[in-house]
Design a protein that fits this description.
elongated, single chain, 8 helices, 11% strand, 170 residues, 5 strands
């Protein structure tokens, strides 16, 4: 947390340059708070999901109050803080739980140390998964897709037989 507090202006500079994705920080390496750009917060409809501290907090204020903000996060009495230079919303500070809520992620089991900014999702097939044929997929998508698939197959057959679509008329 001290590294972030000492370099709040640098964080904002990296956000402006697009060089930093949302990241979490906290004491002892345990994720407690998340910093993200205001654009990301807005894209995920954060303004409609959360009450937040009013106004746009100055960079210097965030640096000065960061420790007390993280203490408020620990006490579960924290509302997200929008901050930036010259009253322009550029970044947001929120708890890891609020960030999960913002993204629509589940909370981890109690006692689990989880960094929601580095979430990894299982991507292997489920046990009941099976390969699908193109025909099955087209059937799921409806009659139009089945018709297009048949047209593609007809064109492929004509190419294989050495005649073009213009030669297919009776």
């Amino acid at each position: 947390m001290d590294d972030v507090r000492r370099d709040v202006p640098g964080v904002l500079t990296r956000f402006r340059r697009g060089r930093t994705m949302p990241f979490s920080f906290g004491d002892g390496g345990v994720p407690e708070a998340v910093l993200l750009t205001y654009d990301q917060f807005e894209d995920l409809e954060g303004e409609s999901k959360f009450e937040r501290r009013s106004g746009v907090v100055a960079v210097e204020t965030v640096a000065a109050e960061l420790v007390s903000m993280v203490e408020a996060i620990r006490a579960a009495s924290f509302v997200p803080v929008v901050w930036g230079d010259d009253g322009e919303p550029e970044a947001v500070l929120m708890s890891t739980s609020q960030y999960r809520q913002l993204r629509g992620d589940d909370e981890p089991p109690p006692g689990t140390i989880d960094d929601p900014t580095r979430r990894v999702y299982a991507s292997e097939p489920l046990p009941e998964s099976r390969p699908m044929t193109v025909d099955e997929l087209a059937e799921m998508m409806g009659p139009y897709t089945q018709q297009v698939l048949e047209e593609i197959r007809q064109e492929e057959r004509e190419k294989a037989e050495g005649r073009g679509p213009e030669d297919s008329s009776p």
